[in-house]
Design brief:
By secondary structure, the chain is α/β, with parallel strands linked by helices. It contains 6 helices and 7 strands; from the N terminus they run ααβαβββαβαβαβ.
């Protein structure tokens, strides 16, 4: 029966639909990774969350942590909730790129741009950032500028092994990597060698 139903279906269309579904699952896995690390960070005293971009854009509405401030940072700058952000306190920053129907069109917001708009990150701050593998050197440089140590850096295969049952995920080498880092110390000023734009 399955073979009869599939006889007239274009195999390219099937592969394309499968590719989109896999990308959506990997995007969901990145969100799950971020929320798991956030739950851990809250137990250590983090009191504010900064969401950069549109991924997890509904988190503020369903925030299960009632005493935690949520700040959203868009491409245009810090949103209206910016008054809630305190640069003197450690923050948990989540940068996962686009979500929703455009999640396959990954758009990366520079870590350096986000950190400089926040006025630097205080020691103890943590961040989750999804980034293209081609930007690995730049991300490493920007992390050094924030005195951050990388706690985990996962490619699509490692993420799928942790959260999904996805055969053939090795084909998705173009999917963003996701890292978890913590700021060890700061010099009391924003990073000095961040890219201008």
């Amino acid at each position: 029966m399955r073979g009869e139903g599939m006889a007239g279906v274009d195999s390219v269309a099937l592969n394309s639909a499968g590719e989109r579904n896999c990308r959506r699952l990997l995007a969901a896995a990145r969100c799950r990774f971020a929320e798991d690390r956030l739950a851990d960070a809250i137990t250590t005293g983090i009191g504010q969350i900064v969401l950069v971009g549109t991924a997890l854009d509904t988190f503020a509405a369903h925030n299960p942590y009632r005493r935690i401030r949520v700040v959203q940072l868009s491409d245009a700058g810090i949103a209206t909730t910016a008054t809630a952000f305190d640069p003197r306190e450690p923050a948990f920053v989540i940068m996962l790129g686009e979500s929703g129907p455009r999640c396959g069109e990954y758009r990366w917001t520079s870590l350096g741009q986000a950190v400089s708009r926040l006025g630097g990150l205080t020691a103890g701050s943590q961040l989750i950032a999804a980034y293209p593998a081609t930007e690995a050197d730049r991300v490493a440089r920007e992390l050094r500028d924030t005195s951050a140590e990388v706690l985990e850096d996962l490619d699509a295969r490692a993420l799928a092994c942790r959260y999904l049952d996805l055969p053939g995920v090795t084909r998705h080498s173009g999917e963003p990597r996701v890292l978890w880092a913590r700021v060890r110390h700061t010099a009391g000023r924003p990073p000095s060698s961040l890219p201008a734009g």
